[in-house]
């Protein structure tokens, strides 16, 4: 992981402790400029980003605070990322609007009153989790702004993606021997047979069998081994892209959507605690039933969206510099009845609305790779044209963001890859992959995975090639069938 060099510009040295608590993260090297004269003699090219206090009162007279702030901002210039800092939220909003109008590279704002609380008359940081979210947001924004990634590619380099799905750690039919051997077997096959390096691992759901935290612990150990084998870098976290599947739902936690504890009154024996129904039943997976998955996803990927995005559907724009972006979709329907275990899929209407709003701010010239667990058919797509309303809304979104590839799992088998129509005359490649370590199902009866190659020229995808591979019970890998190729450029 790269360390970004940040310079904090503030007129109050007593706040150094606050900054050390907020930016207590290995992602940053922090230096301070508390003295005006020292700041204006600093060589700014040594820094990636500048955190500027809005009110530099001690550097000037009361009437000249605005002029001093603009003098500092102009000294930094319009080419470097800037973060504004203030003790007051409204102050941050007002000054942010001013800088954006003038085309300064403002990427983030920090209002200390949102991060601090008063204890015994002293301001302290609310929580480590709060400051970590700030650090994660800043790191992600700087990575995008400065086009930093552990993935280093030239404009004409191919991108290779390992697509796996339905691992189901904890399933009774899970093969521990295959799981243990696979990272080393795959690494040797990629190097000795295919002569390629993998750039991303995409997992389209069902990482656990029933959403148990212990299953995710085992999965995390396995993914760490895969990451260490496949990616020659300090940090492999950004290379994993995952979405939840129906098996990732924790039904025990799901019960909290319907019931709550009725705590006893004072001096009532502890045994009298009872469950009572909520007045307003919460029919959202993402409130409780996917909490264990959410924690695992954040731990694996270091992507702050897994903590901050309630619906667990969001864009990953970190790799726009490669000529494409990712859209991760949680397509799990709420359980309306406690204990119901049938698979139901639908993209939440609120998610679609939020994604559609965000799509309006996306670069329209960057094609999108979509990741979700169920197939388009499970989401309401119908070849006869009688698709569901939900699919039509999703299809409209996919058209608006120029989606080129739809990756999914759930079937436990490799279904034929094909071009599928959306709307407005647009189409998308739909591609599934099988299970790796459990009994695969009743079609084909093979454990398998796919490798996708995106051929690029001048930072544009000009060809799509995918190949399926079978994982045999003796831990060997063999090719499966013909390649699928689509030479339609993603431009």
Textual characterization of the structure:
- The protein is of the alpha/beta class.
- The chain has two domains: 4-145, Rossmann fold, CATH 3.40.50; 159-486, Purple Acid Phosphatase, chain A, domain 2.
- The protein is built from 13 helices and 21 strands.
- The chain has helices at 16-22, 36-39, 65-76, 89-101, 112-115, 128-145, 176-194, 213-230, 251-254, 291-301, 305-308, 349-359, 389-400, and strands at residues 4-9, 28-33, 49-53, 82-86, 106-111, 116-119, 122-125, 159-164, 200-204, 240-243, 259-262, 274-277, 314-316, 325-328, 368-371, 403-408, 418-421, 427-432, 447-457, 460-471, 477-486.
- The strands form five sheets. It has a six-stranded mixed sheet.
- Strand 9 (200-204), helix 8 and strand 10 form a beta-alpha-beta unit.
- Helix 7 (176-194) runs parallel beside helix 8 and helix 12 runs parallel beside helix 13.
- The radius of gyration is 25 Å and the shape is globular.
- The two termini are 31 Å apart.
